[in-house]
UniProtKB/TrEMBL annotation:
PANTHER family: ADENOSINE DEAMINASE (PTHR11409), ADENOSINE DEAMINASE-LIKE PROTEIN (PTHR11409:SF42). The keyword Zinc applies. InterPro entries: A_deaminase_dom (IPR001365), Ado/ade_deaminase (IPR006330), Metal_Hydrolase (IPR032466). Signal peptide: none annotated. GO terms for molecular function: adenosine deaminase activity; metal ion binding. The gene is Dmoj\GI22557. Belongs to the metallo-dependent hydrolases superfamily. Adenosine and AMP deaminases family. It comes from the Eukaryota. Keywords: Hydrolase, Metal-binding, Nucleotide metabolism, Zinc. CDD domains: ADA_AMPD (cd00443). It catalyses: N(6)-methyl-AMP + H2O + H(+) = IMP + methylamine. This is Adenosine deaminase domain-containing protein.
Length: 338
């Protein structure tokens, strides 16, 4: 089964750029760009993917500072973006939507940050034979003014690269910031044709969950604390829940894999997609996530294929792109049946 899943052409719809650098790629990035191969650096790498028993969601966000330092220069960001694209392609991911929060520092403005990531996507996607989209991220822990700048940049750049910049990601530490403050800027993004992939119900906050459901979204990130009525709403509106099994278990938002809501979503035929979230931080791949689902919930090969086809339907891709993706998946499955 694992080999079948590794070779299956896959669709990744929830992947944060900096969190998707695995340990080997982080070492490769550090060696090429910074020449860092010290014992201290190796210890930092080990801590990056180590989760203590009883880890909480806040602990996960503390880990990102390590990678953000490595991608704080144009050269570092360029190579990191290429490595992430390469590693998804190695796992036979044929379509990926990358999310990243534009960062401003002494080396880059938010615009140059996005320009750098866009440049790599344009120059390297064909090399690795993978279709890559970009969702600039609003970090809810930052001021609304930063979100306004991010959306303004996304709207502008989407007119230049409409087949790459296709949406906005709303994420960041769900224990920080107030969703209501971001409604105007999210509305602006939606009014300009950008899809909204929003982290929703990642923590138990019923008031905010109701606000987010009322506002609406194109896809729901995690949905861990949705009520039965929340799940029913997503089903009625055909809003898929981006399920990230390893992420949810390691960050402590579900008690264990057996308690994950993917089982409920499968049983009720509610819209869902299987994703990695941060494949580097959580030391996983999309193939591993599918295998975990087969081991935990008894998914068959046919169900894994169906989940993959479902992901195509919910991708922020054009009709022509979706047709090409389905043809690639169908070609593989047809060969498996011979």
């Amino acid at each position: 089964m694992l080999q079948f899943l590794r070779n299956l052409p896959k669709i990744e719809l929830h992947a944060h750029l900096n969190g998707s650098l695995n340990i080997d790629s982080i070492r490769e990035l550090a060696a090429k760009v910074y020449g860092v191969q010290t014992k201290e650096f190796s210890t930092l790498c080990e801590r990056f993917i180590k989760f203590e028993k009883g880890a909480k969601l806040d602990d996960c966000f503390e880990k990102f500072g390590f990678v953000h330092e490595l991608t704080s220069t144009k050269e570092g960001l360029e190579y990191a973006t290429e490595l992430v694209i390469r590693d998804f392609a190695k796992d036979n991911v044929i379509y990926v939507e990358l999310r990243t929060t534009p960062k401003a520092n002494g080396n880059m403005s938010r615009r140059s940050y996005l320009d750098t990531v866009l440049g790599v996507i344009k120059n390297k996607s064909d090399l690795y034979k993978i279709k890559v989209k970009l969702l600039p991220s609003i970090n809810r822990a930052e001021p609304v003014a930063v979100a306004e700048e991010t959306v303004a940049l996304a709207v502008e750049l989407a007119t230049i690269e409409p087949e790459i910049i296709v949406g906005i990601d709303f994420s960041g530490n769900p224990n920080q910031g107030n969703f209501k403050d971001f409604i105007p800027v999210l509305s602006k993004a939606r009014n300009h044709g950008l899809k909204l992939a929003m982290h929703c119900a990642e923590v138990d906050n019923p008031v905010e969950i109701r606000e987010m459901i009322r506002f609406g979204m194109s896809r729901c990130g995690h949905g861990t604390y949705l009520s039965d009525s929340g799940f029913e709403h997503m089903k009625e509106e055909n809003i898929p829940i981006e399920c990230c099994l390893t992420s949810n278990v390691k960050s402590g938002t579900v008690a264990n894999i057996g308690a994950h809501h993917l089982k409920q979503l499968m049983a009720t035929c509610a819209p869902k997609v299987l994703c990695t979230d941060d494949s580097g931080v959580f030391d996983t791949t999309l193939s591993d996530e599918f295998f975990l689902a087969t081991e935990s919930f008894g998914l068959t090969k046919s169900q894994c294929i169906a989940l993959t086809m479902e992901a195509v339907e919910h991708a922020f891709a054009t009709r022509e792109e979706k047709l090409m993706l389905k043809m690639q998946i169908y070609k593989y499955t047809r060969l498996q049946n011979k």
